Amino acid sequence: MLSAKTIETIKATVPALEIYGEAITKRFYEMMFTNHPELLNIFNHMNQKQGRQQGALANTVYAAAQHIDKLEQIIPVVKQIAHKHRSLGVKPEHYPIVGEHLLLAIKDVLGDAATDEIIDAWGEAYGVIAQAFISIEKEMYDEAEQQEGGWAGFRTFVVDKKVTESTAITSFYLKPQDNQLLPAFLSGQYISVKISDPGEQYTHIRQYSLSDAPGKDYYRISVKRERGNNYPDGKVSNYLHNQIKEGDTLEISAPAGDFTLNMDTTIPVVLISGGVGLTPMVSMLNTVAEKQPERDVTFIHAAINGEHHALRDSVEKLTQEKKHVKSFICYEAPTEKDRAAGNYDKEGYIDLPWLKEVLQSNEADFYFCGPLPFMKAIRSALLEWGVPQNRIHFEFFGPAVNLDKKEEVTQN
C-alpha cells in the first residue's frame, strides 16, 4: 500500500504530466533504448517512429497518477496492456529497467521541479503499478501455456496457404509445425508474428488479428501491405507479402486480446469495419454464423473501392446462406467497374443518416475497427445516435489513443 504522503505527492504531479507527459515518455524511450538496445527486439519500431507508443504510455502514466489512490479503477487498462505484453514476451525482469529510465526521464524533463520527494514518490508508486502488471501477466502466461494445446513464448508454424484477397491484403493460413493440437481463441483476438530478417539487427514483432472463426485446424491472419518498404514503415507486412511463401515457417505467439465478441447474449450485433479493420470483424461474423445461427448480425464494411475490398466473397456467401446475416458496403471512390456492377450500397463515407437507414434501430451491440479517423467518426455517430457506452466496443491496431481528439476524417 502506498503511504498518504506518496499519494499526495503523486496527485500533485498530475498537472505537470498533462503538460509534459509525452515529452517525458519520448525521453524515456530514447534513454532506455540507448542503454538497453536489446529491448528493440520487443518494441514496435514503427509505433516509436510515429509517436503512438509515447502517447499511449503518457496516457497510462497520467491515468495512474490521477487514480493513484484507487488503482483498481485502471485495472481494465492494465489488463488490455498486459495482453499485448504477454503476446510480445515482456517479462518481470524488464520492469526494473523501465522503472529506472522512467524516473530518469521525469528528472531530465522536469529538471529542478522534479524534487527528490517527487522522484521517491514515483519510485514507490511505480513499484506498486509494476507489480500489478507482473501479477496479471503471470496469470496470462500460465493460462496461455496450460490451456489445451497451449504454449509459452513463440511456436513455429508453417504457412499452409497464402491467398491474395485484394490489391493490398493477403491471407496466411498457419498450421503448427509439430502437428500438435491448436488451442481455441476468442473471436477478435490477435497473435504476434516475430520476424528475423537476415538484413536486420533486431527482430520485429507485429500483432495481427485472427480473421477466421475459432475451431479450425489453422489460424488465419489477413495482412495489409503497408505503404513503403523503408524502415520501419511496412517492414513486416512487406516481408510477409514479398518473402514468405507457402511452406515457409513463422514464429507465432498464443492468441491474446480483450476485444472479443460477447457470446453470452442474443442481442443483435453490428460489425463495422474500415479497410484492414475487417479482420477481427470477419472472425466475429463467422463465429456468430456458426455458433449463434439465430442471432441477427449486420456486417458493414468501408473500403476505397472493389479493388481494395478483401474477403468479400466469404461475407457474401454467408449473407446468401444465413437469413439472419445482412451486409452492406460503402466505397469511398468506386471504380467504373464497381459502378457498372452496382456492387456497393453507398458512395463516400459511413455516416449517421445512412446507419439509421440500413439498421433502423440502435438496439444492438456495436463492434468496430479500422483506421483511427474512421474509428473516431463511427464512435461519434453511435454516441450521437444514443447508443450506450457499454454497447460500443472497438479495437486499436497499435497503441491506444484518445478517440475524442479531433482529426481529419478518412474511413479506409
The amount of helix comes to 40-55%
Indicate the structural class. Answer: alpha/beta
Instruction: Please tell me the CATH architecture of the largest domain by its name.
Output: Orthogonal Bundle
By CATH's scheme, which homologous superfamily of the largest domain applies? Answer: Globins
Taking the alpha carbons of the first and last residues, their distance comes to: 46 Å
Q: How much of the polypeptide forms β-strand, as a percent range?
A: 15-25%
CATH topology of the largest domain: Globin-like
Number of strands: 12
Round the mean pLDDT to the nearest integer and report it: 90
Kindly give the count of domains.
3
Look at the structure and give the CATH class of the largest domain. Answer: Mainly Alpha
Rounded Rg? 22 Å
| Major β-sheet profile | 6 strands, antiparallel
Overall body shape: globular
- In the predicted model, the low-confidence regions spanning at least 5 consecutive residues are 406-412
| Number of helices, where a helix is a run of at least 4 consecutive DSSP H or I residues | 13
Order of helices and strands: HHHHHHHEEEEEHEEHEHEHEHEHE
Strands across the major sheet, in which order?
4-3-6-1-2-5
